[in-house]
Amino acid sequence: MTIKKKGAARTLVASAQIVQPKAIRKDSVSANFLNNPHPGEILQEEFLEPLDLSQNALAQAIGVPANRINEIIRGRRGITADTDLRLARFFKLSEGYWLRLQNTYDMMEARRKVGKSINKIKPLTMHDGLHA
Q: 6-111 domain in CATH 1.20.120.640?
């Protein structure tokens, strides 16, 4: 499936781990090849650029230091609950929107780093039982 709109493609990729399409379900190899945009990249390309809004203007509007927005956009800082609430209010989005993007990003990055070792873990079954 090819989506030509840049925004639509990013949204699809950002939510891919949540909906788990058949193409990536339990397949860490496929997940390694997916683009995994940081929430800051989405903030810049899907919100600031289309609205012609500067990082400084956004920072001032939501009451945070400008370097916080810059670090998020550069992928050097994650989204916190505080920042999520401020961005969600400003852009009229549901609370938790930015945290869900951050969580999806973090999970995919973790899967890339430790996926092979995680896949070696045998899931507990009802017959296994755990004994100290």
A: no
